[in-house]
Backbone:
């Protein structure tokens, strides 16, 4: 058996949570492979909104095993808040959630350093979610991080104090004292107290060697879905560096973040929105800094689910989408939030980039270009409401043309069209 993958093709917030939730009943195991509490996967069930940061989106389905993989980094305080929130809705994650014994921990001082580094970047800020992501992954690659499996070691506290001391020295060198910065409104000491109290909750979960667990499960014929967070254009290697997150958000991250070999990867579901959004700073060629951008933000409720920040909005970027499909080897394309465009008379689409005096079909390094802009065309809007209960052929003509235009430009069929937040607002073309 091969593991399937679902991941984002833009700058995150594509709506992966809804699709994982829809696909979940066909799988035995849902496994998150990277990222941490910077993610916010929103799922609406029965009119109620749930936001998951660390826990895989399969948690709402009884009988499905969920796993937090070694590529994920965990803040115990946020993990505890999330499990408590789920319990209030009648879901008891301890029954179905496994945690890798190699997942790295986000320490309170990682969060302090994140804030420090952002402050020192002045106008070059990345716009981090300030969840400690960059500093925690830095310590992982520097080989000084602490992992979930270390929690039960006798010398854990000593190692924790050593790492904390190192972090405080780094902060001091940047001219920042721990008293200068609050973490989610708490002083470092108060957050640290909550952090240690939360370890008990984390330790109540079963920890596993996830590579062994997943490969054995696949050998036994179990179906595994690997769930990504953020999106391809935020990948530490292939995104718009340095305005990226610190993990591999692309299909390669499945192998390093779960221990599933490339030869065992099956379908790759690539999720994108019918337009583009980005939170935080960095290049955004199709950004609309006008009333149309604001309209997309309002109609699409484009405000960050982790930080509440307004998302930057713009037209669909086909060169970036082509690139993301190529990097991930996408086999199934899923388009989200087409309903947000329902009432627009015209819809812009970027078909190529103009770089100096030539046109390019793909993103490329362009530091030296004096002209870099999105070459956009306008397509007619459908100005009506496609009905997800009807087959694709019965949808409004302009809607079908918009979908076909994208399919032709990226040379892939769009298998699923999402037309609203609820499970039943989805047009599954594979079933036609
Ligand atoms: P960090 O991962 O919190 O350090 O943030 C780095 C960049 O990635 C910032 O621009 C964030 O806004 C962005 N980012 C991180 N996580 C997400 C996400 O889940 N959705 C969208 N953007 C994200």
Residues:
């Amino acid at each position: 058996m091969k593991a399937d993958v679902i991941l984002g093709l833009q700058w995150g917030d594509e709506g992966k949570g809804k699709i994982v939730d829809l696909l979940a009943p066909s799988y035995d195991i849902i496994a998150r492979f990277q990222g941490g509490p910077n993610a916010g996967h929103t799922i609406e069930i029965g009119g109620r909104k749930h936001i998951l940061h660390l826990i895989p989106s399969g948690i709402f389905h009884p009988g499905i095993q969920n796993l937090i993989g070694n590529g994920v980094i965990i803040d115990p305080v946020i993990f505890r808040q999330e499990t408590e929130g789920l319990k209030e809705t009648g879901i008891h994650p301890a029954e179905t959630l496994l945690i890798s014994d190699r997942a790295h921990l986000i320490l309170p001082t990682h969060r302090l350093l994140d804030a420090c580094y952002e402050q020192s970047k002045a106008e070059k800020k990345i716009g981090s979610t300030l969840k400690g992501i960059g500093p925690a992954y830095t310590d992982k690659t520097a080989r000084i991080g602490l992992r979930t499996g270390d929690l039960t070691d006798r010398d854990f506290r000593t190692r924790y104090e050593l790492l904390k001391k190192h972090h405080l020295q780094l902060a001091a060198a940047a001219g920042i004292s721990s008293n200068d910065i609050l973490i989610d409104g708490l002083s470092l000491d108060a957050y640290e107290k909550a952090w240690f109290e939360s370890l008990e909750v984390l330790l109540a979960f079963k920890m596993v060697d996830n590579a062994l667990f997943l490969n054995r499960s696949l050998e036994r014929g179990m179906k595994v879905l690997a769930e990504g967070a953020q999106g391809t254009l935020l990948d530490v290697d292939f995104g718009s560096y340095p305005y990226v997150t610190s993990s591999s958000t692309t299909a390669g991250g499945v192998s390093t973040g779960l221990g599933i070999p490339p030869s065992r990867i099956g379908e790759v579901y690539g999720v994108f929105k019918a337009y583009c959004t980005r939170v935080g700073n960095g290049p955004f060629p199709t950004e609309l800094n006008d009333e149309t951008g604001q309209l997309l933000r309002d109609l699409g409720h484009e405000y960050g689910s982790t930080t509440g920040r307004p998302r930057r909005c713009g037209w669909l970027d086909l060169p970036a989408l082509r690139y993301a499909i190529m990097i991930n080897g996408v086999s199934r394309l899923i388009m989200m939030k087409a309903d947000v465009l329902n009432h627009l008379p015209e819809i812009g689409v970027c078909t190529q980039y103009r770089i100096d005096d030539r046109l390019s079909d793909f993103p490329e390094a362009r530091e030296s270009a004096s002209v870099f802009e999105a070459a956009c065309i306008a397509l007619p809007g459908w100005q009506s409401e496609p009905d997800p209960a009807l087959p694709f052929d019965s949808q409004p003509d302009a809607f079908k043309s918009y979908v076909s235009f994208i399919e032709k430009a990226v040379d892939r069929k769009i298998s699923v069209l999402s037309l609203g937040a609820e499970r039943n607002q989805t047009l599954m073309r594979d079933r036609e």
Observations:
- The CA atoms of residues 269 and 332 lie 5 Å apart.
